[in-house]
Design a protein that fits this description.
Elements (H helix, E strand, L loop, with lengths): L1 E7 L5 H15 L6 E7 L11 H9 L15 H5 L2 E4 L2 H11 L7 E3 L13 H4 L2 H19 L1
Parallel strand pairs: 1-2, 1-3, 3-4
Helix pairs in contact: 1-6
Length: 149
Amino acid sequence: MIKILFICHGNICRSTMAESVMTHLVKEAGLSDEFEIDSAATSREEIGNPPHYGTVKKLGEVGIPVVPHRSRQMTETDYDKFDYLIAMDENNLRNMKRFVGSDEEGKVSLLLEHAGRSGDIADPWYTGNFDLTYNDVMDGCKGLLRELR
């Protein structure tokens, strides 16, 4: 079982989008039984909230089901539980250090690294551009799935 945790600041826009996109890609590939996919926040600001309406709308436009989810903050035990902890941006990486300390097992990465690109997934909470965020999330998730197959 391959266990993936997507992480962003509030766990209502980007990481929940990545969780839903990756779940969809894995299901399309017939690999659902081989993956556990979740998402979490580095902050406590949105704990308990559902995915942002912009994320829900964008995923609906492209025909990807939204995984039922309520925002949660990541914990120290997530490092042991998951094989991959994938951050949406550099700020997330810095904030994750409070929970994971050093990444001795090499589990932590940025999502766009898996698409062969550097940089951050833009936060649509601030930009309002869910299209750009979706395109980057899709690229990263497709790249990650290619790596894991």
